[in-house]
């Protein structure tokens, strides 16, 4: 009986985490672009990312893409060792663990011009679920 209660408790907690998850469109209305040089560092600084949230990268897939990279590759705009590569034009990335995450465009000129994003994902729940 105790195992059954524990099982249901875990399920309920899991459902509450995902039901209070946030969806963030990277760059808001500008999306993922190099046009007008959006400040992705400033954009990320105004958000509180949590496990269970989702990032949406919207962009013109003929010219742009998204790569998840290491901190080193983010700093140096190095596209040789991507952890993940997205190119649909509307990529949905679920944040499943806490930590620092780094994204760049594979066009190194774009990355060098600022088309890159660093976010910190917290393990804590959103305040609306507490």
TrEMBL record:
GO terms for molecular function: electron transfer activity; metal ion binding. Residues 1-21 form the signal peptide. Pfam families: Cu_bind_like. Keywords: Copper, Electron transport, Glycoprotein, Metal-binding, Signal, Transport. InterPro entries: Cupredoxin, Phytocyanin-like, Phytocyanin_dom. Residues 22-123 form the Phytocyanin domain. One of its GO terms (cellular component) is plasma membrane. PANTHER family: BLUE COPPER PROTEIN, PLASTOCYANIN-LIKE DOMAIN PROTEIN. This is Putative cupredoxin. It comes from Lupinus albus (White lupine).
